[in-house]
Specification:
alpha/beta; 15 helices; 6-stranded mixed beta sheet; about 450 residues; about 35% helix; Rossmann fold
Length: about 450
């Protein structure tokens, strides 16, 4: 079997001072279906044997031994705090913008509005390019550098292109992104362009754009694909699960609610949680709850119909462009995560998404893009339907900053009121009563 090792550096401390010791940990890529193994330095996106997707597998016992001697808990909260958990050979080649370490915000007022005892918002919009994609890109682009790639590519509805362009620029790599025709949020498009990516707008939807980048990566071996089908992306994103556990003092929540588009993130968080559980850091596992927009919900529909397969949506449509994906490539991982965790999936309408976006901003001061607000909309709907209990400890993940798509926010808010430049006009606009001023003589 083509198993490989990567090097983890940890420290021993002796009387004559500190010195480093190298520890080799067994790791490989493995097909989620037929379990065929591939080396971590093999460039393979689908299992050549059965055609399914891959995931990274560690020897947990070896990892546990390494962590006993590692100083990882002294590092700042970030993706690379978990260096020992990442299948990267050389720390000197890490491509980073200081991603991760995002806030887990106790949302008391939101909880009060919904009658919930304990609600948190894990705000991934605090990452360098404003979305959770940075967690995966720091590891994925680092792997690209290790493999000697000079050209990276992705298909994207926005956030992936913004993140890949930034990390490619950081690494000095050529970057190409394919985006679907139609509305792409300008905040995301601007990021991809300013970082120097070659942006191609395909006359079709995201799923068609993804087909093209897959074909390009297969045909031109010099091009390295960094969509979430790449298992090294998932390794970076699993740090989101690690952080939630640490921020809650290793007492995981009862439920984690996540927006679902291409379905890499929900499976990544579940992978991280399972690893922490296998290593003994946490004793229980949360219910994974995926939220999809009503017009783009193949995974939610599969869960609701108790099917182990999805029916792709040919023409997905939603105001939440980041999750406007009809044929999510990681659907099987997502369905497995929901089933294994005894979780569920729900759909929300565009109106529910926009109402949740406004509510979160005005009740908690957290401004997120529409796709991110789907987790809040899902929370509201599941509470209303009695699926989520009042005493559940819930974490909602918001995946991207509101400035990613400012046009949507502006359209649903009150327009600025123009007034004359005097106190009377301003007070009148504010509904303030005029005060009589009595002058003493």
């Amino acid at each position: 079997m083509p198993q490989q090792y990567f090097t983890s550096i940890f420290h021993y401390y002796a009387l004559n001072g500190a010195y480093q010791v190298e520890k080799k940990i067994m790791v490989h890529q493995e097909c989620i279906n037929c379990k065929t193994q591939y080396g971590i330095d093999e460039i393979v996106y689908f299992c050549p044997k059965c055609g399914d997707i891959l995931e990274i597998k560690f020897d947990i016992k070896e990892l546990a031994q390494t962590l006993k001697h590692s100083d990882w808990k002294t590092k700042p909260l970030s993706v690379w705090r978990y260096r020992d958990f990442m299948p990267i050979h050389e720390a000197s080649q890490i491509v980073t913008l200081n991603e991760g370490g995002t806030g887990l915000h106790r949302s008391q007022r939101l909880g009060d509005e919904l009658g919930l005892k304990e609600v948190y918002v894990k705000n991934e919009g605090e990452n360098p390019t404003g979305s959770f994609k940075d967690r995966g890109m720091t590891v994925g682009v680092t792997k690209a550098v290790e493999l000697g790639a000079r050209h990276v590519i992705c298909a994207s509805t926005g956030n992936t292109s913004a993140s890949l362009a930034a990390y490619a620029a950081r690494a000095g790599l050529k970057c190409t992104v394919l985006i679907p025709s139609g509305h792409i949020a300008y905040g995301k498009l601007a990021q991809a362009m300013i970082h120097g990516a070659k942006v191609l707008q395909v006359k079709g939807n995201f799923d068609q754009a993804l087909e093209f980048v897959l074909k390009l990566a297969e045909k031109h071996k010099s091009i390295y694909l960094l969509n979430s089908i790449n298992p090294f992306r998932i390794e970076g994103q699993k740090s989101l699960g690690f952080e939630i556990c640490e921020q809650l003092n290793y007492q995981p929540p009862d439920r984690i609610i996540i927006p679902v588009g291409n379905a890499g993130n929900i499976s990544a968080v579940w992978k991280g949680l399972k690893e922490f559980n296998q290593l003994g850091f946490i004793k229980t596992l949360p219910k994974m709850t995926g939220i999809q927009a009503e017009g783009s919900a193949p995974i939610a529909q599969a869960i609701k119909s108790n099917s182990d397969k999805i029916i792709p949506v040919t023409n997905p449509e939603t105001v939440a462009t980041a999750i406007r994906i009809g044929a999510p490539v990681s659907w099987k991982k997502a369905v497995n995560a929901i089933h294994e965790s005894h979780g569920t999936a729900e759909t929300v309408t565009d109106d529910e998404i926009l109402a949740a976006q406004k509510m979160l901003a005005r009740v908690e001061g957290i401004f997120v893009e529409p796709a991110s607000a789907s987790s809040i909309a899902g929370l509201m709907k599941l509470v209303k339907n009695g699926v989520i209990g009042k005493d559940e400890r819930v974490v909602c993940i918001t995946t991207g900053h509101g400035l990613k798509d400012p046009d949507i926010a502006i359209k649903q808010c009150e327009k600025p009121v123009e007034v004359e430049a005097n106190m009377f006009a301003i007070e009148q606009a504010l509904g303030l009563k005029q005060q009589r001023v009595i002058l003493a003589r």
